[in-house]
Task: inverse folding
């Protein structure tokens, strides 16, 4: 090996991934070409953009294109572009390593995939299209030179754990990826990728919409009048280069839309919905957006991308344009082509641009209304959409007050009404019995924990529906949304709850019920006062409960206090919250509470009463899924009390 050639090892994650690729039996091996052409197209976009922004960059942009080169005898296929190219650091960072979050998860899912189609979906979902070349090639060679640099880089690997990299002086600007192809094996879907017919078909299927010409030299034989044959080499353009967003829906097939979505989203799934928009007048723009059927793996990661690309008069400006779509709709993919923006626009300018803000408002409303249409006309597709993206959409309830009503209208929630189906708020309201004026909900970490919460007991006993909000974002948005359709949202774990309606009662019956409640409170006043004093470090008040049926006690917050789950979220994010005390509610009909009352009334200073109070409080914490501050002490007090009872 030449001294100038450096051999390196792939990082462990990349090695394992390549092993899966090299020894794979994926059925859709053809898609490697789409990935390479897509990368080449991106490189051409970036070069033209950089030439606009950097007038000192000495590059020729008059004939930007992609070329497919074949060597039938050597069985090689080269995909070449004269785009932005890569530096040596780019090659090591982007090709030599797999520096993407979620790699471990990808490897696990690939290994567990039950069929080839599922595996192919995962490859695209995790954005590793370049590595798909090893499905069809025994060796991959990449030669590249970044625009403006004098030296290029040559990278080569067989996918077996190492790669070589060296500096070269004769590399043309751009990137060329050469595949030394595996033998043709039609049984395992390895086609002849040196065949002009095969390549023509694949470009038409996957890349016809690419805005740059995809060229290939094709040989044909011409015969003159004297039957003399001449071999003619002709350069042909294989793609139509028609921008799909500029064509009407009648002119575009579903297959074309699907392949364009896969190109812009770097995904392999089929879009759940296609949205085409055209605006004329003060602001002219065209948009082609897609709602995926699968959530990207990085949907909830910090380094996630938004997936909307910005063009100006068909000229690519930037991908992942955050200003075009709110963050909670970051799963939407597509392009926006504006007519009146500057080609030299920057992200800082976009943040202040009036036209961009107007486009953002229109796109947001259109996406939300489309989701609403899917909900009303295609409930199965809506269920799939909500399962994939519901958590993200609900973030809008917290940070997009202008569209809050629309968001509430399209949102779905679990409830006690049906364990197998979600419900809309409108459907919840339609089921509310006469006399119920509030929408009841509970938050928690799981459906099981919420359903078994002591706060649910009276609601379950009276058959009153409760929304079960188990996503972390639910803890946040419910504090910002006061009502829906004139009905206040009410946490069943906060404030006082009285489910005994006075509707239909006579004045005498109302007065008798009030007197009964007052008498009961007076009867237990000694115990509740003593418990408040004894547990003063933990609770702010002790009172009788109207929400308990089976449990002896529960903890509730003030109407506007944080829930324990929300406090935990804030503290986990590093935010300081002062300790809060909650209210201890007692079930006056529970045997433990009545026995404690009798013991206190008989002798307020009796030994063991304080321990019982501590146990009662600890049980209430555990029942709602909370964490004891001193579980070891609780366990000791409980063991001592049990020992005395048993003995």
Result:
């Amino acid at each position: 090996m030449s001294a100038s050639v450096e051999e390196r090892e792939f990082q462990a994650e990349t090695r394992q991934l390549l092993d899966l690729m090299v020894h794979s039996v994926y059925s859709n091996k053809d898609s490697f070409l789409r990935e390479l052409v897509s990368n080449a197209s991106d490189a051409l976009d970036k070069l033209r953009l950089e030439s606009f922004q950097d007038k000192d960059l000495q590059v020729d942009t008059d004939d930007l294109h992609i070329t497919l080169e074949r060597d039938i005898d050597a069985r090689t296929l080269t995909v070449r572009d004269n785009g932005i190219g890569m530096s040596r650091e780019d090659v090591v960072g982007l090709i030599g390593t797999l520096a993407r979050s979620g790699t471990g998860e990808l490897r696990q899912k690939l290994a567990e995939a039950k069929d080839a189609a599922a595996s192919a979906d995962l490859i695209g979902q995790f954005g590793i299209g370049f590595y798909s070349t090893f499905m069809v090639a025994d060796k991959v060679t990449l030669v590249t030179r970044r625009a403006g640099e004098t030296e290029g880089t040559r990278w080569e690997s067989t996918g077996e754990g190492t790669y070589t990299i060296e500096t070269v002086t004769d590399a043309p600007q751009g990137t060329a990826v050469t595949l030394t192809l595996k033998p043709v094996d039609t049984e395992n879907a390895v086609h002849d990728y040196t065949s002009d017919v095969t390549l023509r078909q694949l470009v038409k299927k996957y890349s016809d919409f690419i805005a740059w010409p995809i060229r290939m030299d094709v040989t044909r034989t011409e015969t003159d009048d004297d039957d003399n044959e001449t071999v003619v080499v002709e350069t042909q353009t294989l793609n139509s280069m028609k921008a799909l967003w500029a064509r009407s829906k009648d002119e575009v097939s579903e297959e074309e839309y699907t392949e364009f979505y896969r190109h812009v989203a770097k995904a392999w799934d089929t879009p759940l919905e296609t949205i085409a928009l055209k605006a004329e007048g003060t602001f002219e723009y065209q948009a082609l957006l897609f709602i995926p059927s699968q959530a990207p793996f990085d949907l909830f990661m910090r380094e996630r991308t938004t997936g909307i690309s910005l063009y100006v008069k068909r000229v690519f400006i930037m991908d992942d344009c955050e200003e075009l779509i709110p963050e909670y709709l970051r799963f939407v993919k597509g392009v926006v082509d504006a007519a009146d923006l500057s080609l030299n626009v920057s992200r800082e300018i976009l943040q202040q641009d009036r036209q961009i803000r107007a486009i953002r408002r229109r796109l947001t409303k259109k996406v939300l209304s489309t989701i609403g249409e899917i909900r009303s006309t295609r409930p199965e597709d809506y269920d799939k959409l909500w399962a994939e993206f519901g958590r993200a959409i609900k973030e809008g309830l917290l940070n997009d007050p202008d569209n809050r009503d629309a968001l509430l209208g399209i949102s779905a929630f679990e409830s006690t009404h049906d364990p197998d189906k979600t419900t809309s708020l409108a459907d919840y309201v339609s089921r509310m019995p006469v006399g119920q004026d509030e929408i009841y909900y509970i938050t928690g970490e799981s459906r099981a924990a919420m359903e078994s919460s002591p706060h649910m007991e009276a609601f379950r006993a009276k058959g009153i529906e409760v929304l079960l909000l188990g996503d972390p974002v639910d803890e946040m948005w419910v504090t910002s949304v006061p009502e829906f359709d004139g009905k206040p949202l009410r946490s069943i774990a906060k404030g006082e709850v009285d489910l005994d309606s006075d509707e239909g009662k006579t004045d005498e019956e109302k007065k008798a019920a009030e007197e009964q409640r007052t008498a009961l409170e007076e009867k237990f006043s000694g115990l509740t006062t003593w418990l408040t004093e004894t547990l003063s470090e933990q609770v702010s008040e002790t009172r009788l409960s109207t929400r308990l049926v089976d449990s002896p006690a529960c903890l509730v917050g003030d109407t506007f206090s944080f829930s324990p789950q929300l406090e935990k979220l804030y503290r986990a994010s590093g935010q300081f919250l002062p300790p809060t005390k909650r209210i201890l509610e007692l079930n006056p009909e529970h045997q433990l509470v009545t026995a404690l009352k009798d013991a206190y009334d008989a002798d307020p200073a009796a030994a063991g009463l304080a321990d019982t109070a501590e146990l009662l409080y600890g049980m209430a914490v555990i029942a709602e899924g909370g964490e004891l501050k001193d579980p070891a002490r609780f366990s000791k007090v409980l063991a001592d009390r049990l020992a005395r009872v048993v003995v």
User: Anything to note?
Assistant: Residues 99-103, 114-127 have pLDDT under 50 and may be disordered.
